[in-house]
Amino acid sequence: MDLIKGDITTLDLDCIVNAANESLMPGGGVCGAIHKAAGKELAMECKRIGHCGVGEARITSGYDLKAKKTNPITETTSLETEINKLVYELYGLTDEEIAIVEDSVG
Predict the structure, then answer these.
(1) pLDDT at 42 > cutoff 50
(2) For the purposes of burial, counting CB atoms within 10 Å of the CB of 98, is it exposed (0-12), middle (13-18) or buried (19 or more)?
(3) CA 27, CA 100: separation in Å to the nearest integer?
(4) What is the pLDDT, as a whole number, of residue 65?
(5) The domain spanning residue 93 has which CATH number?
(6) 3 part of a folded domain
(7) Which residues contact 88 (CB under 8 A, 6 or more apart)?
(8) Fewer CB within 10 Å, N or C, the chain?
(9) pTM for the structure as a whole
(10) Which uninterrupted H or E stretch holds 79?
(11) Is 23 part of a structural domain of the chain?
(12) Residue 68's domain spans which residues?
């Protein structure tokens, strides 16, 4: 696993895992930056998905991001468990192929 300091929206990754609000709508901070870089299609997909309960996760396309997917997760005490579940079960990726936003993990 590598530690990279930089703008997560410019990294060429398979998936960005980030914290989200329950409505999945763009806000400020990292979430807002991801939505801005991805383009309006990400907000439209999040609106179609709708609600994401606390501790749940959704998978979206990356749109204009270099990342192929985004994975918003609402705040939870077991975020690490959710990340592992998504990485290994849904994507079949290794932990070296995703980016986790530092602010999202406490």
Answers:
(1) yes
(2) buried
(3) 18
(4) 92
(5) 3.40.220.10
(6) no
(7) none
(8) N
(9) 0.69
(10) helix 79-85
(11) yes
(12) 8-105
